[in-house]
Amino acid sequence: MKTVSDKNQELIKRYYALLDSNKLDESMEYFSENAVLKFNSETINGREGISSALGGIVSSVNGIRHVLTNVWEVEEDLIFLECDVIYSRKDNQQIVVKAAAINEIENGMIKEQRIYVDLSPVFA
Prior knowledge:
The protein has a single domain, classed as Nuclear Transport Factor 2, Chain: A (Roll), CATH 3.10.450.50. 27% of the residues lie in helices and 48% in strands. It has three helices and six strands, in the order ααββαββββ. The radius of gyration is 14 Å and the shape is globular. The termini are far apart.
């Protein structure tokens, strides 16, 4: 990871490791209770809503794996990242899509996450 504090580097690594291991409940512990997720043009409020939205995606495929390609810490509380997301579809095909995310951190938790990704190849 590029120019990211140790504390935020660990937060990002652990969060994505849990998400990729299909441990959605545990990954939600990295979001503040009133967190906001902006997924492309949709806004989801609160940890429960985020869990439901991400759970819908996770349950629609056999697996997800994030390969972080670039991570930047703009400020101590603002992290930008690029990644390749490998989706294992229900028909066992693997689809790789590029994604970007902006994470606003507050008190060691994700306060707001903005994800930009085109999922159409995954569900084509």
